[in-house]
Amino acid sequence: MPGTDRAALFDVDGTLADTNHLHVVAWWEALRQGGHHVDTHAIHRAIGLPGDQLVEHLLGEERDRAGDERLSTAHDTLYGSYFERLLAFGGAADLLRALAGDGWKVVLVTSAKNRELEALRRAVDADDAITASATSDDVEEGKPAPDPIEHALSLVGVTPDRAVFVGDTVWDMQACARAGVAGVGLLCGGIPHDDLTKAGAAAVYDDPADLLAKLGTSPFASVPAR
């Protein structure tokens, strides 16, 4: 078995699981129920932020915060109706297993809450390849702050220069840059290539299957086993 001092960090929503647009619909309806009319494209761009930060990003700091908890609860209830139907992207499980088989410690880094993360892990169906998981509940600030990535690295005892993070949003790439970790962007979450590279992505691929096919020339190949 190759050395295990390397960490492959993965966002989940929009990266391993095809869920971003489900979140958009759930947030759109939750906001509508709260009396807020927000365009779906704006919600899509905010996906990847923790719920409280997403609401602030969309509604601004001057909003009446009294309704924030109701908005989050409504989103969680609406999104929860999809839990038994969530699907992983093709190649997601194979990608995690390929990296784990090559000695990488695979860590999930997500804004999902515990019950939601359980549903996502069932959809991805690769628990045998996953070493640990880190959620926004574990840190004071979620992405784009570096805290989630730094916490994930601490769980497996790996330094930033020996890690690669895979995500699908600008928030993911910004968090990587701030944590000093190489970032890989995937287009399957719906964010354009140029937005990901401008946010700091070292490389961009279509989806997990595309990254798996090109692992040998990806940023993962720049972190050799030792």
Describe it.
The chain is α/β, with parallel strands linked by helices and 226 residues long. The chain has two domains: 6-19 and 86-222, 3-Layer(aba) Sandwich (Rossmann fold), CATH 3.40.50; 20-81, DNA polymerase, domain 1 (Orthogonal Bundle), CATH 1.10.150. The protein contains ten helices and six strands. Helix 1 (20-33) packs across helix 2 and helix 1 (20-33) packs across helix 4.
Task: Characterize this entry briefly.
This protein has 226 residues and is of the alpha/beta class.
| Gyration radius from CA atoms, angstroms | 17 Å
Give the N-terminus to C-terminus distance in angstroms.
11 Å
Element pattern in H and E: EHHHHHEHEHEHEHEH
Strand content: 5-15%
- Please give the order of strands in the largest beta sheet: 3-2-1-4-5-6
Query: How would the global form be characterised?
Result: globular
Low-confidence regions: none
The count of β-strands is 6
Which architecture name of the largest domain does CATH use?
3-Layer(aba) Sandwich
Helix content: 40-55%
Number of helices: 10
Identify the notable features of this structure and list them briefly.
DNA polymerase, domain 1, 10 helices, 6-stranded parallel sheet, 226 residues, Rossmann fold, 6 strands, alpha/beta, 2 domains
